[in-house]
Design a protein that fits this description.
Elements (H helix, E strand, L loop, with lengths): L4 H8 L16 E7 L2 E6 L12 H21 L6 E7 L5 E7 L6 E3 L23 E8 L7 H14 L4 E5 L7 H4 L8 E3 L2 E3 L1 E3 L2 E5 L14 H13 L6 E7 L6 H9 L4 E6 L3 H16 L4 E12 L10 E2 L6 H9 L3 E7 L1 H8 L16 H23 L11
Helix pairs in contact: 3-10, 5-6
Length: about 400
Amino acid sequence: MGLTKDQISAWLRNVPHPAGGDIVSRETVVHIAACDNNASVRLTLVQGPSDPDPSEETMKTLGARVIQTVTSGAMASGMGPVVLGVEFVDHNGNVAMRLGADSGANNAEASASEPKTTAPQPSPQASASGIEGVKHIIAVGAGKGGVGKSTVSVNLAVGLARKGHSVGLLDGDIYGPSLPTMLGLDAMEQTALEGSLQPFYVHGIKAVTMGKLVDSDKPLIWRGPMAHGAFTQLTERTRWGELDYLVIDLPPGTGDVPLTMAQSLKLTGAVVVCTPQKVAQDDAVRAVKMFEQLGVEVLGAIENMSYFIGDPDENGQTKEYDIFGRGGAEKMAQRLGLPFLGAIPINMALRQNSDSGEPLNNFDPGTAGGPLLPQSLERLVQNLEGQLNLASLKQGRSTPSLTIR
């Protein structure tokens, strides 16, 4: 969660006014704007037409105090570095002085006649590191819950493993872990060796989930720092071994866990899951913008629950029902200039295989309710592989090869 105007206003009540009291009560603060970890504050030390203009030294001193107070408050609240600009205006509302702070540090000054320049802020990915032995990390996110993000994560991981890759799956949905059910882990016990978690090896993949570290019926009523710590423990204390791909199933929304992930793990890219209807698209767009702001390449969008596959008729023909308005996520991807990785239908078999913890059954027409579901999953995995290869080339993680026969 980023800065808010109310937070900044509360912190500024600790800044003393040169004439006594604080600058909020003395109505020195005339405007506050905040977005994510960026903010601006406009001040005036002139309350009436007869008041003298403040000295340059007074504005510098007060501006520096405002910057220090806000950046300290943000750091103490766990928000990390902030970018804050402070302006002083005169009787007519014209800017008399600008002071700026980059990444919470003091202060770059510019006069009203000189354009203010702020150094570009490095994305969280700039200082992130990988996991030893893991070649590629893929985040699967969504702007809202209930769109089947965990279903997509499980089937992507299993699908990549079926193509011969070594794959891990991390259940990063700290508050609502789904992997114990979807992978059939209920009867298994989590083990640790020399202080490291040993992932479960099921359905051809390695998996770790918070759901096997707490009571299954116990709600996790955690604030942001606790979720941050839990996610960090899962990533840093798991003995993954050598992996081609690690798929991370994120919690819905744009909260603490995605930010923690972006700051600590170097990702090859992210996949955004969406259902066809407009309300889901609106939230998916926010997830896309979040990944872009964090410096994570968006590999593409996936439309889940694209259509419903009904039971076959007497001739063996199945009927498709566009319950949520098929194709909406594809149009969203086109509008945002993103690759569309594919659509996943839903049928009774997909629900049964998920509830029984048998994801491999989704790739077999005999246990997947026919060929449509397996075909869509195979196509999805193939498209994702292509985008991962492109992303690796752009990031310098691999080089093209030429085979001559």
